[in-house]
């Protein structure tokens, strides 16, 4: 997954959402659900909204994490992370590593990369080329992980 070179640079931040920001996430979700309604059978409720009933759970359950996406100082989207698969309960370690790398939390990102390596997740061979781990490349632990995966530095 190489990063395209002709894209304009943007300042993108992933910000943990607070309970006070729940209305912002709810509004953004309405836009998402409207877009998805073209492809999925999602109906408007009587008040003209789609509603995402599970949104409040992101502030009451330990395995859920709400984030707002800010691009160049303006709200641009949201990310709702739920640890573990609905079917197996397994945590997607690679995805969590990418998420924490984007947030600038290298220590947590490397802990998740270690889990991804231990679980032999299929994304590990892309460590060298996936632009989503770019924030980690300057860290000496990145070169060490490349060597462990068997990729040239």
Describe the oligomeric state of these chains in a short phrase.
single chain
Helix content range: 25-40%
Which parts are unreliable, with pLDDT below 50 for 5 consecutive residues or more? none
Shape: elongated
Count of extended strands: 3
Average pLDDT confidence is 86
From the alpha carbons, calculate the radius of gyration and give it in angstroms: 18 Å
Quote the beta fraction.
5-15%
Order of helices and strands: EHEEHHH
Secondary structure class reads alpha+beta
Please write out the topology.
Blueprint (H helix, E strand, L loop, with lengths): L11 E5 L5 H15 L27 E8 L2 E9 L10 H10 L3 H13 L21 H10 L4
Antiparallel strand pairs: 1-2, 2-3
Helix pairs in contact: 2-3, 3-4
Q: What do you see in this structure?
A:
With 153 residues, the protein is of the alpha+beta class. It folds into 2 domains: 12-82, no CATH class; 83-153. 31% of the residues lie in helices and 14% in strands. It is built from 4 helices and 3 strands. It has a 3-stranded antiparallel beta sheet with strand order 1-2-3, covered by helices on one side. A hairpin with a 2-residue loop joins strand 2 (64-71) and strand 3 (74-82). Helix 2 (93-102) packs antiparallel against helix 3 (106-118) and helix 3 runs parallel beside helix 4. The longest helix is centred in the N-terminal third of the chain and has 15 residues, at 22-36. The radius of gyration is 18 Å and the shape is elongated. The mean pLDDT is 86.
